[in-house]
Write a structure and sequence with these properties.
The chain is an alpha/beta fold. Helix content is 33%, strand content 23%. The two termini are 37 Å apart.
């Protein structure tokens, strides 16, 4: 189980931070943590941190003069005034434990992000089980294209910036609002986006009722003068917002009852081309560079938010059309040694997998290999039958599974990739399983050739196989 969020709130953290200069970030290389560390340095703090492995994110931080340690040592927090931590670290993290023993305030990532955003005029929080990073980065592109100079905190590296953040003015703060451990309840949106809701994070959420209640609370954070932009096509979303007190604005794909809808949709080798309508009136035209019907849905949500915030329709359409994607969201990653195209995707929930594979069908490849790594034993156990069905019933020619990525868990639930492969084969689909990345990569490199697609999919460390295939 991950560490809990602190839930101090912005006012209490503001009091804690008075006169505090030296901040330590435990897990500083995380996609959101590195952004918070950088923003904190810009605000005049002395920032240091720990992460277990060097990465581009930590290299960027070091280039900005931020010290990053790669081995744990309690001496790292000598002189530190406040420790900010990601809930992904363990409770026995030496710096985290020592801070508690020394009485140094410890603030969770989400709580600290809520504190940072509280000073912005318009705070736009993007929530949903799927599509948060894509929609957040789409909003960054559209708002930046329109010249609004937004500040953005995204859950993935954005093609437009090369980073997971953008530091701009205090007019607009656009942020990804993660539901895990109810992190998003520490945020202060003036506009809340809800893209979709379904069962996930089963190590924390135990029922749809609990999940819908959490999303209802997130929407309510906007207050009666706020706005919620919600997916009319998702029944779970609409149940969650049935008692919302602010201004409710709906969006949908080919849904004329929605306030904003994508219509006249066609696909150019999997990339959506469509018109956005607002209450039956043409708003703008977009020709996406990214794949799938799900990207069209994210785009119409983006258009709705931008229009509500006063962005000109022409800028919305052009910004969407120039959007180049986010890291690990159907990201082109080169070719195998025999010439197959490699795409890298973050999908790790059965719905995300089905959505991505549906987009792949429109890409006109002669053969598709799906290389998948399941993420956490608890999710694999709870959604096992769904994983099997969505992979076995897909149009992929081969399913290639790696070991399960354990993340914060241990193997006590009796599930395995071998069992998943066996069940997929029972449904008539070719499925292989490799415990070792090098063996998996060698098989793909020797097998996949020209006009074929290798889709590397999962939220763990599966991207490590990509350079091995080239």
């Amino acid at each position: 189980m991950a560490l809990p969020n602190t839930h101090f709130g912005a006012e209490h953290i503001a009091e804690l931070m008075k006169g505090k200069k030296n901040l330590f970030f435990a897990g500083i290389g995380g996609v959101s943590m590195c952004s918070l560390a950088y923003i904190s340095k810009l605000r005049g703090h002395n920032v240091t941190g720990y992460d277990r492995t060097p990465s581009k994110a930590t290299a960027d931080l070091e280039a900005e003069g931020i010290t990053v340690y790669y081995e744990n040592d309690v001496s790292h927090i000598d002189g530190v005034d406040v420790l900010v931590y990601t809930v992904a670290i363990s409770a026995d993290n030496p710096e985290y434990k020592a801070a508690g023993e020394r009485g140094i305030p410890r603030i969770s990532r989400a709580d600290y992000l809520g504190y940072l955003m509280s000073g912005y005029k318009n705070s736009i929080g993007v929530s949903g089980m799927h599509g948060k990073s894509t929609t957040t980065s789409m909003l960054e592109k559209v708002f930046a294209y329109a010249g609004t100079d937004p500040t953005v905190n995204c859950g993935a590296v954005m093609a437009d910036t090369g980073k997971a953040h953008r530091i701009g003015s205090e007019e607009f703060f656009i942020f990804e609002a993660c539901e895990y451990m109810d992190s998003f309840l520490d945020f202060y949106p003036t506009l809340a986006v809800i893209l979709n809701i379904e069962m996930d994070h089963v190590d924390y959420f135990h029922s749809m009722e609990q999940i819908e209640e959490s999303y209802a609370k997130f929407a309510a954070k906007t207050g009666e003068n706020g706005i919620a932009v919600v997916n009319l096509c998702d029944e779970n979303v609409m149940r969650a917002v049935k008692d919302y007190k602010g201004r409710l604005v709906t969006f949908g794909v080919e849904c004329k009852d929605a306030d904003y809808s994508a219509e006249n949709i066609t696909f150019n080798k999997g990339r959506g081309v469509f018109d956005v309508y607002h209450k039956g009136e043409f708003l703008c035209h977009a020709e996406l560079k990214v794949f799938g019907n799900h990207s069209v849905c994210d785009a119409v949500a983006t258009a709705a938010v931008a229009h509500l915030m006063g962005i000109a329709p022409e800028d919305i359409g052009k910004g969407l059309s120039e959007y180049a994607g986010a890291a690990r969201r159907m990201e082109y990653s080169g070719k195998t040694v025999k010439g197959a195209d490699i795409y890298n995707d973050y999908a790790h929930h059965p719905t995300e997998i089905a959505t991505t594979l549906s987009a792949v069908e429109k890409m006109e490849y002669s053969k598709v290999y799906c290389v998948f790594q399941s993420h956490t034993y608890s999710r694999t156990k709870e959604l096992f039958d769904d994983f099997v069905s969505v992979l076995a019933e897909s149009s992929c020619d081969e399913i290639i599974l790696s070991h399960i990525y354990s993340a914060r868990e241990t193997d006590t639930l009796g599930v395995s990739s071998e069992l998943m492969a066996e069940k997929i084969r029972e449904k008539g689909k070719k499925a292989l399983c490799f415990e070792d990345f090098s063996d998996l990569a060698a098989y793909v490199a020797q097998t996949a050739g020209e006009n074929e697609l290798v889709l590397v999919m999962g939220a763990g460390d599966i991207p490590a196989v990509i350079p091995m295939m080239k």
